[in-house]
Amino acid sequence: MKVDECEETLLSMVAEMDGETPILSPEQTARHVTGCERCRAEIERQKAAVNLLQRQKRQTADAIDLWLEVEKRIHNKPVPESVRARYYFFLLGAILVIYKLLEMIPAQDWGFWFKLAPLALVAALFYFFRENPFKINTELKLEG
Amino acid sequence: MVIMDDSIALKNCLDGDKESFRYLVERYQNQAVGHATAVLGNREDALDAVQEAFVDAFRAIDKFDSSRRFYPWFYVLLRNRCFKMLATPGRQNTISKEDSEILAPGNESSIEDTLALEAALLALTPEDRELITLKYLDGLSYQELANLLQIPRGTVMSRLFYARKQLQAKLT
Question: Which residue, among A18, A20, A25, has the nearest Cα to A9 in the 3D structure?
Fold first, then answer.
C-alpha cells in the first residue's frame, strides 16, 4: 500500500466521522481499508478518541467578572513600546526635515555647531535606546 | 431601557463609550476564559491572558472591521496573548493536574474517563489542545476552524488527525 493512499483514506474517513465532506468516495475508502490492516487499526483508534471527545463539555467558568480588572488595566497600561518608538522616529524625521530646510536657505551661515547637529541627534538616539537604533532585526517572528 | 447588541456596542465603543465595551467583556468573558484555559492549561494564567486581550481589544477597537463578528476578531488577540505568555522566557508551565479545568466533569462519561482525557489533553502541545477543544467542545466545522485559526482547511484536517493520534497515544 502506498503511504499517500493510506493518508488520504484516513483523512477521508476521519472527515466523515466529523460530519465533513470526505476527500475520497465511500467506495474508494472501502476498497482501500479492506486491503489495509494498518488503516483499519488506525481508524478504530481515531473512532475511540472521537467517541470519547464527543461526550465531553467545556468547563464553564463560575461567576467571573473581569470588567473591574480590565478597566483598571485600560487606565494603568502605558502606551505600548512599539507606539512610543514610532513616535520618536516621527519626531526624528520631522527634526531632520526642518534641519534640511534650514540648511537650504542660501547665504545663511549657521556655524560649526549647526553642522554637527545631526551627529549629535544620532548619538542621543544611541544613548536613549541603549542600542543601535538603526540595527536591522533579523529575528522577527510572526505572533502566535 | 437600552437594548444592546454587539453591533451597537461596537459602534458606541468607537465613539469612546466604555460602558459598551463593558457589555462586550461581560458577554464574552466566560467563553474567552474557557478558550484560554485550553491553550494555557490552567485557569489562573487564562484569566490574566483574557484580561490583557480585552485591554488589547479596547486599544485596537478602531481597527475592527464592523462587517465582521466581534469574537473571532477578539480570539486572534486572545490567542496571541496566550502564545506570547507561553513563550515568555523563564515562565513555569503551571498545568493544573488536580482538578479538571478544561473539561466539565459529570457528563456522559465517567469522572475517571474525563480526568484521564483531561490529563491526555494537557500532555499535548498547546496548538493541538486548542484545535481539539475547538473542534469537539465547541463543535466548530473544519471551515470555521480554518477561518478562526487563519490556516487552510486541508491543514486543519491533517493537524486534527495527528492531534487525535497523539491524544489516543497519551490515553493508552
Answer: A25
